[in-house]
Amino acid sequence: MTGLARFERRARELLDPVHYDFFAGGAGDEVALADNEEAFGRLALLPRILRDTTGGSTAVTLLGDACEMPIFVSPTAFHRLAHPGGERATARATAAAGTVLVTGTAATTPVADVVAEAREIREDATVWFQLYLQPDPEVTAALVRRAERAGCTALVVTADSPVFGRRGRDDRNGFHDLPPGLYAENMRDLPGGADRVRPIEMSGAFTWEHLDRLRARTDLPIVVKGVLHPEDARLALRHGVDAVLVSNHGGRQLDVAPATVDALPAVAEAVRGRIPVLLDGGIRSGADAVMALALGATAVGVGRPVLWGLAAGGEKGVGEVLELLRDELVHTMALCGAASPGDLTGDLVTRRGAPR
Ligand SMILES: Cc1cc2nc3c(=O)[nH]c(=O)nc-3n(C[C@H](O)[C@H](O)[C@H](O)COP(=O)(O)O)c2cc1C
Ligand SMILES: O=C(O)C(=O)c1ccccc1
């Protein structure tokens, strides 16, 4: 077994099957979940030859933060359900890999502790905060303040969850709550709920106006997560958003959403280089990352691969997953004649079975 599959298999062996299903599962018939990965399999890379790639680099700058590779850790809930080290272990390994960790509202470790842990490994470690806007604006404001005070350098606002996706595996398994002792720690001691952990609320009432209000309240760059329609990318630009993240929530929200790599070109076309376009969903190898970068992404996020590394081996496991992806990325870039991420252009991507 090659690559990341080894980590997933190990995670499945080690995890409670109910928790494995929570991490692995998607919405409905898991159409989008499967398509995210399959869509990369429908693509091929058309390499360029005889280009000097020695002395190349995988480094990128993301919203002002230096990043050693264009692969970051997308926000996923409940890391302490995967491994006792939880988000602390993920933070240490991600900092060691020199890339961005997106922690968030559903972390089982407080954001301040996540940032502190990352900075213990590397003083300039980058942590961003994924925000679920909450119906009570005071609660949202408190979460933002918490992220700012912790030292997060961007907010990632998840906009694809007006309602919580219907996850058949969780319904069948009766998994709806964290086990005793685990909590969404960032929801603790918020306005109107001192000494308790508030539930994370999803709401369909949010609009671009709420993003304007957030924009007015914080100096942090804002990433909108869950953009699939090019018109929403244009709206994001109009509302002063700093980056868009093309995502279908790992197939956990709208089951019939397109694969993210299929949605990417139209979004990149709408954005026309004015702000970074990020992507997550189905990235399982360095070659997948290369394809998405060539199609217009500035960087790509990984969700489940990090959870599998965490479950399989805590900090060490996450480190191995990120190093494997980095190694594959470097190797694939060299084979394509690309010395840096900027050399990855759309002409390198073709449909499998139909070379140009
Ligand atoms: C178990 C799990 C929990 C997640 N929790 C969140 C979350 O709290 N907030 C969020 O914006 N996205 C969440 N996501 C979506 C991820 O940020 C990301 O979009 C997705 O996992 C990317 O797809 P991949 O798992 O194929 O890499 C979650 C995904 C998984 C698998
Ligand atoms: O599972 C998820 O995808 C997710 O986004 C989430 C959000 C809040 C609590 C638990 C999970």
From TrEMBL:
Its cofactor is FMN. Residues 1-354 form the FMN hydroxy acid dehydrogenase domain. The active site is at 249 (proton acceptor). Belongs to the FMN-dependent alpha-hydroxy acid dehydrogenase family. The keyword NADP does not apply. PANTHER family: 2-HYDROXYACID OXIDASE 1, S -2-HYDROXY-ACID OXIDASE-RELATED. Glyoxylate binds at residues 132, 167, 249, 252. It comes from Actinoallomurus bryophytorum. CDD domains: alpha_hydroxyacid_oxid_FMN (cd02809). FMN binds at residues 75-77, 130, 158, 225, 247, 280-284, 303-304. Coiled coil: none annotated. GO terms for molecular function: FMN binding; oxidoreductase activity. GO terms for cellular component: cytoplasm. SUPFAM superfamilies: FMN-linked oxidoreductases. Signal peptide: none annotated. Keywords: Flavoprotein, FMN, Oxidoreductase. It holds the Pfam family FMN_dh. This is 4-hydroxymandelate oxidase.
